Each structure stands twice: as C-alpha cells, then as structure tokens.
Amino acid sequence: MSILITPETKIMIQGITGEFGARHARLSIEYGTAVVAGVTPGKGGQTFEHAGVEVPIFNTVAEAAAATGATVSAIFVPPPFAADAVLECVDAELDLAVAITEGIPVRDMVRVKRAMQGSKTRLVGPNCPGLVSPGEGEDSKGGCRIGIAPGYIHKKGHVGVVSRSGTLTYEAVYQLTVKDIGQSTCVGIGGDPVNGTSHLDVIKLFNEDPDTHGIILIGEIGGSAEVEAARWIAENCDKPVAGFIAGATAPPGRRMGHAGAIVGGAEDTAAAKIKVFEECGIEVAVTPSDMADALLRSAEKKGVTLS
Amino acid sequence: MNIHEYQAKQLFEEYGIPCPKGAATSSSDEFGTCIDSLGEGLVVVKSQIHAGGRGKGTFTDGFQGGVKLAKTKEEALDYANKMLGNTLVTIQTGEAGRKVQTIYFTEGADIKKEYYLAVLLDRASSRPVIVASTEGGMDIEAVAENTPEKIFKVFIDPGYGLADFQVRELVTKLGLSKLESKNAAKLIRNLYTMYCEKDADMIEINPLITTESEEVMALDAKVSFDSNALYRHPEIVALRDLNEEDPKEIEASKADLSYIALDGSIACLVNGAGLAMSTMDIIQHFGGSPANFLDVGGGATREQVVAAFKIILGDANVKGIFVNIFGGIMDCDVIAHGIVEAVKEVGLELPLVVRLEGNNVVAGKKTLDGSGLTIVSGDSMADAAQKIANLVK
C-alpha cells in the first residue's frame, strides 16, 4: 500500500499543453502512471499523445473528471492562474489537487485555503515536487508519479518521506534506494509559507499506513510546521522517524530560495527545530548525507525492519 | 521586496493613514526646499536605508544617529549634510553599513503616547494577523518575550475580511479615548485594505502615536511586499531601490538565479533551494564557511552555470568552490559542460570540488574527467564538503 495515491490512481494534468506540463506528463506516462486526461481551457477535444498513449484534453476539470474518472489533478499552470486552477479542482470534488506551480502570491493561497475548508479536496503544494508511490517494475516503473520528481531513483518499499524541498527529497530517496531500502510514498509538501497539506497531515497518514514502517521528515527554517509534527510524533507515533532541518547557516530575515524559508524569530531557526526533534525522539540526521543512515539507526533502536 | 520609509509614507497617504507631513530628496540642493515645505517648528531628519535601528546607528565617520531632531532649519540642514553620502552602521546592516542616498524630513510630532501596530501573515493559521501593543517604539520581539500580555492579536478570516468587532477589540485593549478609538479604527481599517490591495508581506508601524489633540498617526513605517505578487503591481516594482541591494544579487536576479551573499570563503553552486541551504550547512559542519546561497533551479542551462560562476568569482572572499548537483530530471552532463565552459572562460585558479549525482551522471563525470581541468570529485555531499573544507583551510 501507500498513502494518497496508488499505481491505479487516475490523474489529470492541468496545463498539459504548456512546455513544463507536457514534459512531465510524458515522464509520468513513461513511468507507467495512469495519466487519463489533460485540461487546457480552449483546447478541449484535442489529444495529447506520447509513447502510444492518447490522452484526451478537456476545457474544464469537471468535464475531465466526469469523462475519465480521474480523481487527482497535477497543476502546472502559471502563477497568476494557479489559485483558480486549485479552486476548479475543489468545485469538481476531486480527492487531491497537487500544485506544482512556484510563485503563487501568498494572498491567493490564503484565500484558496480558506475556500477549501470543509471541502472534499485535499491540496498538496504549491511550489512542490509532487508525490511518488513507486511501482514494482524496473527503476520503480509502474508506480504513480504526480509532479516533477525523478521516478527512476525510487524503489518500492516501506519508508515514507515527507519534505518541503524537492532536491532534498530526491537526496533522501536516493540514499534509501542505493541501500536497497524502498519507499511507500514520497510527498513533497512545498516550500511556500501557505500550503495545503502540512508535515503533520502526511505524518498522520504514514502512521496509519500498515505498509509504511519508517519515516523520514525533512524540514527547513521558517514557520512551525516541523515542530507541530514532531510533538505529535512524540505522543502518537511508534514508527522509526529520522529528521533533518536545512538552513542552520541561513542569515535571519533573508528568504533562502523558498518563499517560506525565512527565519523570523528564535523559534523557527534550524537549531530550535532540531532541539525539538531530539526532545521528541526523532533521530536527527547530522548532515543531509546522513538521512538514510539516521533512519536505520532509529529502526535498529526500535527493532523495526525497513526493507 | 522592501521599500524606504518615505515611500511607505506616500502609500500611507494614498490609503488615508495619517502620518506627519514630510519631504524626501537625494540632492543636498533641495534640502532647503524640503524643509520649507513643512510647517513651523521641529524638523526630524531621517536617513533612508533598508535597515532598522537607524536612530541608534553610527556613521563610519563617527557621527552619531541616523535620525535626528532639529530645532531650527540651520540645524536640520547641518544634520542632513552630515548624513547624505555617509555610511550608516546599525544593528541590522552589519559592519559594512549602508550608504545613505536619500534624506527624509518630517514635521516633529506632539507625542502623547507610543504604540505598536502591524499586519502580516500568521503562518500557523494561514491567515492575516493584526498585532498591536501598548509598548510602542521598542523592539517588539523583546516585548513579546518579556511582557506577552501587552501584545494583542486578531486573526482575520480571509473570506470575510476584518470584522468590526475585531477593530473594537484592538482599540479597547490599547486603552484609547473615544476620539482616539474612532481615529485608530479608521487607521486600522485602511491599513488592512492597503495590506490586501498591495499584496504586502508585512506593514509595521512602530511607533504609532497619539497626539495631545487625540489624533492617531504613523511616526515610522516599515513595509515589505510579497515578491510573488509583484507581477500585478508595477507601481510597487517602480519603488525598488537597487542601491540597497548587493550588486552580485542584482546580477544573479538578471540571470534568473537565486543568490544570497554571505561572508564566508567557500562558494557553492547548487540545484534546488533545500539542497542549496543544506550545502551551506554541511560546509560549516566540516569546518568551512559558506560564501553564498546559490540555487540554479531545476532546469539550469549552460549559460546560467557560466553566469553563476562569474557571480561567485566576483566575491573577493571566495577561496574555493563547491558545486553540488543532484540531477533529478536535470541532465548532469549539461551541468558538467557548463562547469567546463565556465572554468575555461573565467580562468579559474581556486580549488573546485564537484559532486554530481543523478540523471546521466556517468556522462557528466566523463566530461569533467576529460576536460583536462583540475576538478576534485566528491562521492557524496559529505565527502565533497570535507574535501573543499580541507582545500580551503
């Protein structure tokens, strides 16, 4: 099993005819993901073709969902239109909207998040690499890849990875895979200050998933999401958890690439978050090269087999 | 994006947020006209730089105070002449300080009491929050630490907007008189409107003051904007002051690179913000000091890599370079060619350690090996970081 998505999940891609969306639609199709629809307003009726797969394009999300049974959308539309694209998924009552788009204004996300309260749809992102539930095939093909992560570095297995950063997720996944430790699902929740799904939301799902035996939690400076997740883990999660926080050397008040990666006070520094991790029994990776090893240490302490 | 106090006050005026009358100039020839445009009485002379702590700052020539109260026009002229072109060092500027290129003159206000007022995003609730305090003119973080009961917050429902009861709650807790409350309520409403309409990141008024005639006004103003929303605010983009930015950071933004200058000796070039941050961390972990944050992004081109090298080498403190690439989708060989081309073009003499991993890595490593250049290869991030730290020591 996995969380949020399985190899059977049918996905649509909003912005499939744009360069960025098209490129990753092709990679997802090659990975074996069920890309069943594309959405580009004004291009309904056309077809997106790749590797012998024909993907019908629709004008609206609702039409795409009704015609194909897609329950998840990957959003690749430019920032000025991205908030609207998310709301369209909510209106169509999709299970999951994954916003890859980087650079959405904060005010737009604040309003979208409020509008999503009480709705059926979950949002992952924005400004995120998306999700991967690896498959059984060669280079983990046959899995579900939503977004922009490199599929081939994964391996099907039992470790859940959750992170605000794309490349750090890949780093962790790759360390696991070369050690022959597979992953259940890898979730990039995004680097923006206002996002749909938090570290804690994903941790809860991993905790409930019988097929996830261990968790890597990757965070960074800014905000309190990692602290909130760590405190919950201390009370509720017996699975081995390794943690890493990026940004120990970041100067206060500067945004480190991600819109949300900014030290605002004493509570959201890397040192403060690492201290909370330690208090909560999370095995801290000393460097980013230590993430998989840290999880192995935690698993050994708890007598859990990861592979 | 940050703006100057005088620019913020101009926006305040547009939104009906009262502040003392003022005039700004970058030319000493206009000091007199600016001062004459104000009313009779005291004049406040304020250095305009994008950093806090101006009042308690010191200029590099020993002159004290980036904000001065003058009793006469002559005194104001004297202060302004001492500030303009001089370099002001405050707790927020670092040792190098900032050159003052604009002076802002305002009328002196008749202060009854000082307060604090700000509107910003509360990340935990994903809602705007208005923060107010009876302790104005002080470091608000210190107030929060020592007397949290003197800080009042209202969280705004973005669907409904700022509610009347929330405004009443704030003015009541601040202990304002009836007329002051009426004036403050109007100011708070206008402040929130400006925050929304201009896509501000944060607006901070410290101090907000009441006067003997029960007016409420903003004595200082610190305003920053959400960079993601600048595309819909050309009027805000026009307020950008390149003098306040590091020239290397300006170059980087032209090449679409995310770069932040630091004061260490090991430059780094990385793909991805999280990896770039942790590359800085791992350099420090192994005893080095990072010279910068540099994210070339997920789809870096050869041209960008060349531009990145030029920016890095423009920093005289740099004694070594660490390239850390995890090519997920990005082709490692493209990066490798970019590195070789850049090194040849700039004639690199500093130690260079490269860690390549991911997509097409074998071809990438071959390109580096076959280039005839002295490039040290790292097997993992930790291995590469240790190597560059040792080479620079």
TrEMBL record, chain A:
GO terms for molecular function: nucleotide binding; succinate-CoA ligase (ADP-forming) activity; succinate-CoA ligase (GDP-forming) activity. The keyword Nucleotide-binding applies. HAMAP family: Succ_CoA_alpha. Succinyl-CoA synthetase functions in the citric acid cycle (TCA), coupling the hydrolysis of succinyl-CoA to the synthesis of either ATP or GTP and thus represents the only step of substrate-level phosphorylation in the TCA. The alpha subunit of the enzyme binds the substrates coenzyme A and phosphate, while succinate binding and nucleotide specificity is provided by the beta subunit. Heterotetramer of two alpha and two beta subunits. This is Succinate--CoA ligase [ADP-forming] subunit alpha. The active site is at 258 (tele-phosphohistidine intermediate). One of its GO terms (cellular component) is succinate-CoA ligase complex (ADP-forming). Substrate binds at residue 170. GO terms for biological process: tricarboxylic acid cycle. Keywords: Ligase, Nucleotide-binding, Tricarboxylic acid cycle. Pathway: Carbohydrate metabolism; tricarboxylic acid cycle; succinate from succinyl-CoA (ligase route): step 1/1. It catalyses: GTP + succinate + CoA = succinyl-CoA + GDP + phosphate; succinate + ATP + CoA = succinyl-CoA + ADP + phosphate. PROSITE patterns: SUCCINYL_COA_LIG_1, SUCCINYL_COA_LIG_2. Coiled coil: none annotated. It comes from Pelagicoccus mobilis. Pfam families: CoA_binding, Ligase_CoA. Residues 4-104 form the CoA-binding domain.
From TrEMBL, chain B:
Keywords: ATP-binding, Ligase, Magnesium, Metal-binding, Nucleotide-binding, Tricarboxylic acid cycle. GO terms for biological process: succinyl-CoA metabolic process; tricarboxylic acid cycle. Binds 1 Mg(2+) ion per subunit. Residues 9-238 form the ATP-grasp domain. One of its GO terms (cellular component) is succinate-CoA ligase complex. ATP binds at residues 46, 53-55, 109, 114. InterPro entries: ATP-grasp (IPR011761), ATP-grasp_succ-CoA_synth-type (IPR013650), ATP_grasp_subdomain_1 (IPR013815), Succ-CoA_synthase_bsu_CS (IPR017866), SUCC_ACL_C (IPR005811), Succ_CoA_ligase-like_bsu (IPR005809), Succinyl-CoA_synth-like (IPR016102). Mg(2+) binds at residues 206, 220. SUPFAM superfamilies: Glutathione synthetase ATP-binding domain-like (SSF56059), Succinyl-CoA synthetase domains (SSF52210). Its cofactor is Mg(2+). It is an enzyme of class 6 (ligase). Substrate binds at residues 271, 328-330. Pathway: Carbohydrate metabolism; tricarboxylic acid cycle; succinate from succinyl-CoA (ligase route): step 1/1. One of its GO terms (molecular function) is magnesium ion binding. It comes from the Bacteria. Its EC number is 6.2.1.5. PROSITE patterns: ATP_GRASP, SUCCINYL_COA_LIG_3. It catalyses: GTP + succinate + CoA = succinyl-CoA + GDP + phosphate; succinate + ATP + CoA = succinyl-CoA + ADP + phosphate. Belongs to the succinate/malate CoA ligase beta subunit family. Succinyl-CoA synthetase functions in the citric acid cycle (TCA), coupling the hydrolysis of succinyl-CoA to the synthesis of either ATP or GTP and thus represents the only step of substrate-level phosphorylation in the TCA. The beta subunit provides nucleotide specificity of the enzyme and binds the substrate succinate, while the binding sites for coenzyme A and phosphate are found in the alpha subunit. Heterotetramer of two alpha and two beta subunits. HAMAP family: Succ_CoA_beta. This is Succinate--CoA ligase [ADP-forming] subunit beta.
